[in-house]
Every structure is written in structure tokens, then in C-alpha cells.
């Protein structure tokens, strides 16, 4: 029985890969990948700008932009061409400061406004 387990695990892994069950990590060549990179870069910009820990900053895609992506109205090519816009909020000592952050199609911050 002990010898069957590694074989069964290997068979499951191979079947999972063959049928697409195993998910791939987000890369910069996917909508999710560009959004993750842009969001992380926007968050880092806020951390640097306000000298706060990462836990004090939250970042999200603009609601209209997120809805358009979900509907399929905005494609990966559109994002690569036009970039993305994020909303950020810094909460420090009970006070909130917010603004937006625009990124290019590679996730690099191009504009950061309070």
C-alpha cells in the first residue's frame, strides 16, 4: 500500500495538468497579472509617500474599470495599451487619506494623486 501512494499522487498530478485543473500563477501577460503588479506598485508608492507600513494601505481597481473587465469590455490588449487605474486609501492614526494611482500596461506607476 505504501508504494501505491506516490504512484497515485503522480497520476493525479499528471491528470490535473492535462485537464487544466492546476491553475497557473498570474503572469504579467494576463489581466490578473498586470492588475496584481500595478496594484502592488501603487501600494508601494503610497507606502513610500506617506512613510507607513504596508498594512496601513489598501488598494483596489477603480469600480467602473473592474466592472468593464468583468464584462469583457476591456481586454488584455486594452490594458497593455492604456494601463489601469487604482484607488488607494492610507489609514494612519484613525485618519484616512485617499487618492488614485494610474499605471501603464506593464504595471509601472505613471501618476499618483492625493
Please explain how this structure is put together.
The protein has about 110 residues and is α+β, with helices and mostly antiparallel strands. It has one domain. The chain contains 4 helices and 4 strands, in the order ααβααβββ. The protein has helices at about 5-20, 30-50, 65-70, 75-80, and strands at about 55-60, 85-90, 95-105, 110-114. A 4-stranded antiparallel sheet has the order 1-2-3-4. A hairpin with a 2-residue loop joins strand 2 (about 85-90) and strand 3. It is elongated, with a radius of gyration of 19 Å. The termini are far apart. The relative contact order is 0.16. Mean pLDDT is about 80; it is low at about 1-25.
Radius of gyration: 19 Å
Q: What is the tally of beta strands?
A: 4
Separation, N- and C-terminal Cα atoms: 63 Å
| Helix-strand makeup class | alpha+beta
Helix and strand succession?
HHEHHEEE
Number of helix segments? 4
Low-confidence stretches: 1-25
Count of spatially separate domains: 1
Gross geometry = elongated
Q: Strand order, biggest sheet?
A: 1-2-3-4
> In percent terms, what proportion of residues is strand?
15-25%
The mean pLDDT is 82
**Largest sheet, described in full?**
4 strands, antiparallel
Fraction in helix: 40-55%
Amino acid at each position: 500500500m505504501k508504494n501505491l501512494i506516490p504512484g497515485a499522487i503522480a497520476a493525479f498530478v499528471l491528470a490535473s495538468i492535462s485537464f487544466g485543473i492546476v491553475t497557473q500563477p498570474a503572469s504579467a501577460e494576463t489581466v490578473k497579472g498586470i492588475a496584481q503588479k500595478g496594484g502592488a506598485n501603487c501600494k508601494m508608492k503610497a507606502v513610500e509617500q506617506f512613510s507607513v507600513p504596508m498594512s496601513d494601505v489598501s488598494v483596489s481597481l477603480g469600480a467602473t474599470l473592474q466592472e468593464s473587465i468583468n464584462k469583457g469590455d476591456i481586454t488584455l490588449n486594452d490594458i497593455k495599451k492604456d494601463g489601469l487605474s487604482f484607488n488607494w486609501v492610507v489609514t494612519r492614526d484613525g485618519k484616512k487619506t485617499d487618492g488614485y494611482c494610474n499605471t501603464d500596461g506593464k504595471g509601472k506607476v505613471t501618476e499618483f494623486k492625493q
